[in-house]
Predict the structure.
Amino acid sequence: MRVAVDAMGGDFAPAAIVAGAVEAARTLKGLTSLILVGDEAAIRKELAAAGSVPELVQVRHASEVVGMEESPAVAIRRKKDSSINRAVDMVKHGEADAVFSAGNTGAAVASTTLKLRTLEGVQRPAIATVIPTPTTPFVMIDSGANTDCNPLMFAQFAVMGTIYSREILGRKNPKVGLLSIGGEDTKGNEATKEAFKILEKSALSFHGNVESSDIFGGVVDVVVCDGFVGNVVLKTSESVARTISRWIREECRRNPIRILGALLAKGAFGTIKRRSDPAMYGGAPLLGVRGTCIIGHGSSSPEAVKNGIRVAAESVTHHVNQMMVDEIKKLESVA
């Protein structure tokens, strides 16, 4: 298994990226090569600080970096030798099986889509984000790649999300929900109402419409929406979680009794933090392209990078792309 890593992408690159990649090389089975793509001098400096580095870790120089705030389209066209472009090129030319990047999400989507193209039958690729809940995590697709979608795209997202949930998260028969403003099939815009009809006839385990207030309750395993709505839900959820965490810390420090109570509940707080930590899921796959691309959070820690590389390898070994092609062909007859 060969994974190309955009070593310069992310808020804490290249330090966190290199550290996570080295840990992945040390602990993950099945990896044959891990190629760190980016500024060779900067990467080798971090490798020297990491101590003993497995031989499977390699370095591929790239002279340019796409910044987190740069326009993806402009950056991809003008920065041909950027680390994300070179990493995706390795997959395109058969030098790597998958790519991981915690850099500019738009640039990763644009580069992967333009260079690798979409799978047979897939209209548009989509970002699938794994979101933790008090019970089991669910997959939300799309989380930001497509702001406007037609009914068939929604149905294809449901197929791709189902396969990812089953093969990577281990759900035996994932339940699919279409995110809308009500549970009735008459609720939603024209695109979601037409998508409902397609999904209802499909072989998927379609639960029906779900409202945003239900998605964290474990009702479904896959939540389908367009990228505009998905990205708003995702960032709102992250903001609410941070706000509640800050409130809890402030209130626990208000007097000695609360401080004592917080110390007694330290173990519970630690468990909650671990269960809700996105680092354990590694990153969000861009599903529907001819290759495997995992997009990490910009603030990815070494642990998140390691798990992102793990998920990339698992996606390849589970042959999720071929499954998507086969299932989308079946969906076309229904649509």
